[in-house]
Specification:
Number of helices: 15
Shape: elongated
Number of strands: 3
Structural class: mainly alpha
Distance between the termini: 32 Å
Strand content: under 5%
Strand order of the largest sheet: 1-2-3
Helix content: 55-70%
Radius of gyration: 21 Å
Largest sheet: 3 strands, antiparallel
Length: 270
């Protein structure tokens, strides 16, 4: 029964945490018994079971309970198969979604060598606009996961494609994550490539795209600032924040000591 398999998946994370805490007694139980179940249920015929398996996998990754070897040898191959060009549409959409979500939890080497080539292919998927939409919405997170060199070499050309996509929702998603993409690039790329691209979005024929671009204008401009003088920085959660100068904090007892959140790069990414 699918409901039984779904319930089982919901119990996997707490069992895995228990086994991790009792590892001297159960040194290999998770890797031998539980991890294979999670991987198998990623391809279950029932979509609710697959969803429960995906959620369980993300929790396990967040808790750092999955070994690097299992990620590279068991999880990534399944996701690459499910996101292949000839894969079933529903499976492909789910696979690209989980690839984007797990990218920030994996090592840069794993993402760049195993997942980035497929992500670039999916950005150009001509069959399903839903796949391209997921790629566009999560583009900033992927850039952050792989760093500046891979972003400028492989991702920026794909970003240009998505920014000129015929579906306006794609262009809107690109406008919403523009700051996160810009922050990952060099000042020269921001000036010579991203600035003209942003102008095209702010002049888009669709008012929803223009509106999203105008909302991202301030955050995009902030990426040109010198962090040492402006105090702007990006936190790990993708939030653009400003740190008050130390002398101002000391001289004004009313000055808040906490960082002031300006805008979140992923606020409208859904």
């Amino acid at each position: 029964e699918p409901t039984v398999r779904t319930e089982l998946m919901e119990q996997i994370p707490p069992i895995a945490i228990f086994l991790q805490e009792s590892r001297p007694k159960f040194p290999t139980a998770f890797f031998e018994y539980l991890m294979p179940i999670v991987v198998r249920y990623l391809t279950d015929v029932n979509n609710q079971v697959r969803k429960a398996g995906q959620e369980a996998l993300l929790i396990l990754l967040e808790q750092d309970l999955v070994a690097q070897s299992d990620i590279e040898n068991k999880v990534c191959p399944i996701l690459l198969d499910l996101s292949a060009p000839d894969s079933d549409d529903e499976y492909k959409v789910e696979a690209v979604n989980i690839i984007c979500k797990m990218a920030s939890m994996l090592s840069r080497t794993t993402v760049e060598h195993m997942l980035l080539p497929r992500f670039c292919e999916l950005c150009s998927d001509g069959k399903l606009f839903q796949v391209r939409k997921i790629c566009a919405a999560n583009f900033g997170d992927i850039c952050n996961a792989v760093g500046q060199e891979a972003t400028e070499r492989l991702l920026i050309p794909k970003f240009f494609e998505l920014c000129s996509d015929s579906v306006w929702g794609m262009r809107k998603a690109c406008a919403e994550c523009f700051m996160a993409v810009s922050y990952t690039t060099s000042p020269e790329v921001r000036r010579s490539k991203l600035s003209p691209l942003f102008i095209s979005l702010i002049s888009d024929t669709c008012r929803w795209v223009r509106q999203a671009a105008f909302q991202s204008l301030g955050p995009f401009i902030s990426t040109f600032a010198n962090p040492s003088s402006a105090g702007l920085y990006i936190r790990e959660d993708g939030t653009l924040s400003i740190r008050p100068p130390a002398q101002d904090v000391n001289s004004n007892p009313c000055q808040p000591s906490n960082n002031i959140t300006v805008i979140s790069s992923s606020a409208n990414a859904a």
